[in-house]
């Protein structure tokens, strides 16, 4: 390997130092049994999976423009956690009454959350009246919107893992990207099923971290906090309470009534899509 080192690398890692690294690895992990094919996770970076007698490491090489090695390190692989294909816990809608699915579905066209890993299957729900309207008046006040102040319900039993509060509600049309979720509640239903309910009304949250909640329990009120242009409820399911590490889980609600062409149709295990008007009855 030393013949592949750059001049600066040869000076930083002389033969005796490289030999000591090799001896240390052998003492801790045993002999090398297999060297995997190279992967290139980033420009000028090569990654090899190295299987030893007593463990697996990743050998990461940093290369210069001539392909010479200018960096070498061994790291423990980060385990890959595969999210469930869909929910296993039985989910109820997190509200009562009729709501429009403003965003929801499996494609970028139907769901602008699609490219955000933990929100890939997220929904934005907006309350509507019998004519499908989202607000009365001119819509310049949060109170004009039928969603504002509506009760938000726990979709299933679980334990509250995180609560975000103290984020003021926006005026309609103004968004707050600095606190994207706004006021929010996270509920863990199982090891890999965590509900996230966001954009809640300031000071409306009725639960705290560690609380056990039951399906249908009121956890707060719909608001317009965070990266939200009008009062609505954001809901998604993810496989971990840690937002930055989580992956979205597709959710099907146990029972949904879909209103179409003036008729109501009950659907079991339904995953709503953009444009549907749905209700819990």
Features:
281 residues, mainly beta, Glucose Permease (Domain IIA), 11-stranded antiparallel beta sheet, 5-stranded antiparallel beta sheet, 2 helices, 18 strands, 36% strand
CATH architecture of the largest domain: Distorted Sandwich
Count every helix, treating DSSP H or I runs of 4 or more residues as helices.
2
Main sheet makeup: 11 strands, antiparallel
Task: Give the helices and strands as they follow along the chain.
Answer: HHEEEEEEEEEEEEEEEEEE
What does this structure look like?
- The protein has two domains: 74 residues, no CATH class; 181 residues, Glucose Permease (Domain IIA) (Distorted Sandwich), CATH 2.70.70.10.
- Strands 6, 7, 9, 10, 11, 12, 14, 15, 16, 17 and 18 form an eleven-stranded antiparallel sheet that branches. Strands 1, 2, 3, 4 and 5 form a five-stranded antiparallel sheet that branches.
- It has two helices and 18 strands.
- It is elongated, with a radius of gyration of 26 Å.
- By secondary structure, the chain is mainly beta.
In short:
The protein has 281 residues and is mainly β. The protein has two helices and 18 strands.
Note the topology.
Layout: H1 7-12, H2 15-29, E1 32-35, E2 39-42, E3 45-52, E4 55-63, E5 69-75, E6 99-103, E7 123-127, E8 151-153, E9 158-164, E10 183-190, E11 193-200, E12 212-213, E13 218-221, E14 233-238, E15 248-249, E16 253-260, E17 263-270, E18 277-279
Antiparallel strand pairs: 1-3, 2-3, 3-4, 4-5, 6-7, 6-18, 7-14, 8-13, 9-10, 9-12, 10-11, 11-14, 14-15, 16-17, 16-18
């Amino acid at each position: 390997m030393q013949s592949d080192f750059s001049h600066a690398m040869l000076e930083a890692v002389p033969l005796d130092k490289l030999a000591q690294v090799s001896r240390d690895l052998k003492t801790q992990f045993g002999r090398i049994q297999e060297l995997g094919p190279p992967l290139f996770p980033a420009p000028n970076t090569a990654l090899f999976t190295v299987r030893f007698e007593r463990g697996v490491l990743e050998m990461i090489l940093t290369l210069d423009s001539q392909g010479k090695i200018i960096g070498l390190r061994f790291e423990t692989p980060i385990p890959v956690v595969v999210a469930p294909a869909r929910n296993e816990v039985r989910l109820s809608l997190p509200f009562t009454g009729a709501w429009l699915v403003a965003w929801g579905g499996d494609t970028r066209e139907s769901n602008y959350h699609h490219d955000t890993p933990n929100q890939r299957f997220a929904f934005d729900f907006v309350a509507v009246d019998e004519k499908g309207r989202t607000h009365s008046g001119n819509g310049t006040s949060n109170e004009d919107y039928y969603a504002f102040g509506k009760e938000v319900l726990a979709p299933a039993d679980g334990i509250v893992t995180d609560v975000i509060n103290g984020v003021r509600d926006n005026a309609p049309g103004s968004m707050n990207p600095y606190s994207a979720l706004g006021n929010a509640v996270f509920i863990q239903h199982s090891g890999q099923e965590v509900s996230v309910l966001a954009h809640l009304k300031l000071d409306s949250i009725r639960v705290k971290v560690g609380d056990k909640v039951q399906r249908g329990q009121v956890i707060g009120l719909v608001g317009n906090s965070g990266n939200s242009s009008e009062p609505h409820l954001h809901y998604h399911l993810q496989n971990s309470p840690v937002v930055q590490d989580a992956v979205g889980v597709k959710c099907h609600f146990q029972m949904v009534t879909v209103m179409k062409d003036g008729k109501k149709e009950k659907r079991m295990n339904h995953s709503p899509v953009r444009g549907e008007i749905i209700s819990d009855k």
